[in-house]
Design brief:
94% of the residues lie in helices and 0% in strands. The protein is built from 1 helix and no strands. The model has no long low-confidence stretch (mean pLDDT 90).
Length: 32
């Protein structure tokens, strides 16, 4: 159970970082 929850947390964190990265890139792409 603990290993599965850790994997889910890692996946959730990865998705969160990717979403923030995309949101950060959208304005730069629009201004270009």
């Amino acid at each position: 159970m603990k290993k599965k929850t850790r994997q889910k947390m890692k996946i959730a964190m990865a998705i969160f970082i990717i979403v923030i990265f995309i949101i950060g890139l959208i304005p730069t792409i629009l201004y270009m």
